Structure formats: structure tokens, C-alpha cells
Amino acid sequence: MERLQRFEHLKDRFRQGEQVTGGWVSIPHGEVAELTARHDYDFVCVDMEHAPTDVSDLGDLVRAIDAAPGDTVPLVRVPGNDEVVIKRALDAGVGGLMVPRIDTVADAEAVVAASTYPPEGIRGTAGTRASGFGADLPEYLDGADDAITRIVQIETLSAVEQAADIAAVEGIDALFVGPADLSVALDVPLDYGAVMFEEAVEAVVGAAGDAGIPVGVFATDPDRFGTWAGMGFDFGIMGYDAGFLRAGNERLLAAYDEDWG
């Protein structure tokens, strides 16, 4: 299947430590997803955790990303580490998962099991969009386990302390830090220069490096891109759709008030 080849290419790039770029969709509308994917991101992640996106929306958003020119791979951040939600998200045809609040090895192992077919995992089998509604089911069953990218989020002190063991779980392809959530969990909200925050990031980056997998960050401020890179992050998700709308409106209104008001 051509789709699985595209998915596997992205997974290989993660595993080989190549630079990848990610987009983010929090507005559950197909045109927003397609427009985002047109900008040549390597992947676009659809948010189901902090966005009003449900499984029925997800199918339309994945189709929209697929419709854009190029080889952008649709990923999804599921709302939680739930095998039923993971199964349904994969059935919609995504090429990978981001799973929030992975605090332990058992959590990470559950992600791999939910996204892997038996006998190694527990993912259910069906003729869904992912397998061409059954037409490509034999090929999909043969290749999906090795093509799906599995990214887990490190967001708590417990996760930081166990990051090395989490990163070493077979089947986990990348760690990911949401700096806002991690800073709040460490009681230094949004203070990315706090010693505690920097030490936590250093621990996560080191754990990922020891396991031979990359670690990414949610990077909404281009003025901080160099800082994130200097802290050892391997890849970033470059802001999000709602943030772009807000920033664009603020910039234009400021210019209007200055030059026209």
C-alpha cells in the first residue's frame, strides 16, 4: 500500500534522527487541515485532547490532509491512553499517534499494545478506511504495525523520572514535551528558564538520546526556536492554527491602528 510506504518513510526519518517538521490542527474543519498540510510539513497532527474534535471529525480531517499536495502524513493526538479511542483513530487512516500523559513504562507499553495487531498487541481488525474499507486488509495487516509512528508525551515529574525506561519501550518512536504542561506540573508555570524546567528537559533529552529516539517540543514562538534547539530537542511542531489566526489578527489590527486610525 502506497499509504503505508508514506507512513513508514516518516517513521524511518524519526528513527534515523532526521529533521522533521510538524503542523498542528485544533480547529475541526477540513479546509483548515488541508490548508495546513499544503505548507509541506512532514506531518500534521490533529488534536483531540484540547480541541472539540471527535472521531467523526477525525475522518474528514485525515481525508483533507491526504488531499493536499505532497506527502504530509496525518497524525493524531488522542485525548488519552485509551485502547478504544486509539483503535478508532487508527481506523480513520492516520499514520501515527501522539498520546498524552505517559507517566510510566506500563503506560507506554499500553500505547504500543493498543496500536499493534495480535499476537503482539490487542488492536482489533476491521475493514475500515485505514485498510481501504477492507480491500487492502491483507496488506494493511502485514505492514501497519511497522509503519505507525508512536509518540508519547512527557508532561509530569513522574514521567521525567521514568523517561529513560519509557523511551526504551520497544515500539515507542519519539518522546514529546509540551512545555506549558510540563512547566505547570513542575510548579513553574510557563517559566521555561526555570532551573527545574531546564533540568527536566535535560533529563528527557538525555533519556531519548540513550534510547536512540528523538524528542520533540511544541514550539509556538519563533523567537524561541533557537533556544529549543540549543536545549537538545530534535524536532518541533511549529505553532497551531488558532494561534496563527490570533497572531495574524493582532498584527493587522495593530498596523491598522497605527497607520489608518
Query: Per CATH, which architecture?
Result: Alpha-Beta Barrel
Under CATH, the topology can be stated as TIM Barrel
**What is the general shape?**
globular
In the residues, how many domains can be counted?
Answer: 1
Kindly estimate the percentage of residues that lie in beta strands according to DSSP: 5-15%
List keywords for this structure.
261 residues, alpha/beta, TIM Barrel
Write a structural description.
The protein has one domain: Phosphoenolpyruvate-binding domains (TIM Barrel, Alpha-Beta Barrel). It contains twelve helices and eight strands. An eight-stranded parallel beta barrel has the order 1-2-3-4-5-6-7-8, surrounded by seven helices. Helix 3 links the parallel strand 2 and strand 3. The chain is globular and about 60 Å long. The mean pLDDT is 96.
Fold topology:
Elements: H1 2-15, E1 21-25, H2 30-37, E2 43-47, H3 55-67, E3 73-77, H4 83-91, E4 96-99, H5 105-114, H6 137-147, E5 149-153, H7 157-161, H8 163-167, E6 174-177, H9 179-185, H10 195-211, E7 215-219, H11 225-230, E8 235-238, H12 241-259
Parallel strand pairs: 1-2, 1-8, 2-3, 3-4, 4-5, 5-6, 6-7, 7-8
Q: Could you provide a short overview of the structure?
A:
The protein has 261 residues and is α/β, with parallel strands linked by helices. Helices cover 48% and strands 14% of the residues.
